[in-house]
Amino acid sequence: MTETPTPPRITRKHLTRLREIYRSSGWPCRDTLEVDLIVGGLVQSERDDQGRETLHLTPAGLQALADAHATNRANRSAHDELVMQVAQRMQREGRIAWTQLALRAQVEGAWTQAIPDVFSIRHTTVEAYLEPVVHEIKVSRADLLGDLKRPEKRAAYLAMASQVYYVLGANAK
Q1: If exposure means fewest CB atoms within 10 Å of the residue's CB, which of 3, 23, 34, 112 is most exposed?
Q2: Among candidates 52, 45, 46, 43, which has minimal Cα distance to 10?
Q3: For residue range 38-54, what is the model confidence (pLDDT) as tens digits?
Q4: What sign results for the dihedral spanned by CA atoms 40, 43, 48, 51?
């Protein structure tokens, strides 16, 4: 008697591949991600009358993609709400605040672009008193851990601001 293999745990990389297959003509890459998706019942392989193989999402694959999209939308909404709360708080404290402002910073001799969630300065005309501050908003543990693995992003924020804060959502899942 053969045992049915346990479906693999679906990761962010699997969901990204699902989205790529859904958006494309379904040409296979033939890698372990696709093996996991096929074994997990999220993707099926089909051959046309000329023998060309393509991949297509199963109903379970479409549902997994829809669920991931709903989660992303909910996280995005919580993120956007927290960004606005922080920006308003900075304004109430007399600071000038921007959200999603693209700025350039010099890190290790090279210029890089960074987009902090909230960037604020003191309301003053004296350059020495500007006190630029970056607030980076995180509503999920995965988002925070992903950001902490990117020291170049943190270095860019530190190059453009005198202080950098990570703001964690209290109701984050």
Answers
A1: 3
A2: 43
A3: 999 999 999 999 999 99
A4: negative
